[in-house]
Amino acid sequence: MERGGGERVRQASATLNARGLLIDRRAHATLPDGRKSGLDGFQIIAAERFSQMADDVVVEWRRKGWLALAHFHLASLDRFCALLDRAGRATRAATVAKPSSDPGKNASKSAPRFTKKD
């Protein structure tokens, strides 16, 4: 494994922040039983802004190893959202499979999702 990877991530993160490419996000979910769960205080790469970087910057980032880090991050976000959707569907299916005497108890809840931090 390559040494100094942590420093490369710190440098890439600082540059992403300096270029205004990081945005605050919050992840939240409403569970089938009505409980809410959430994660706050993290940032993600603004994919649209990132895709508009100048060609010379993209080449520089590729040489520094930052481009791969950014692409892995963006791919991870896509997979995270898909995982949350899958977990939400599985939880709702399990809830539907166990009927309750309370007709409102098994009502479908919203799937977990990312939202902008206020």
What is the compact description of this entry?
The chain is an alpha+beta fold and 118 residues long.
Structure write-up:
There is one protein chain. This protein is α+β, with helices and mostly antiparallel strands and 118 residues long. It has one domain. Helix content is 52%, strand content 19%. Strands 2-1-3 form a 3-stranded antiparallel β-sheet. The longest helix has 32 residues. It is elongated. About 12% of the residues have low confidence.
SSE layout and pairing:
Elements: H1 5-18, E1 22-30, E2 36-45, H2 47-51, H3 55-64, H4 66-97, E3 113-116
Antiparallel strand pairs: 1-2, 1-3
Cα gyration radius (Å): 19 Å
Order of helical and strand elements: HEEHHHE
Q: How many H/I helices? A: 4
Globally, the shape reads elongated
Number of domains: 1
Total beta-strand segments: 3
Strand content: 15-25%
- Report strand order across the widest sheet: 2-1-3
Helical amount: 40-55%
Mean pLDDT, all residues: 78
Structural class by secondary-structure content: alpha+beta
- Low-confidence residue ranges: 99-112
Sheet of most strands: 3 strands, antiparallel
Distance between the termini: 39 Å
Looking at this protein, list some descriptive labels.
alpha+beta, 3-stranded antiparallel beta sheet, 4 helices, 19% strand
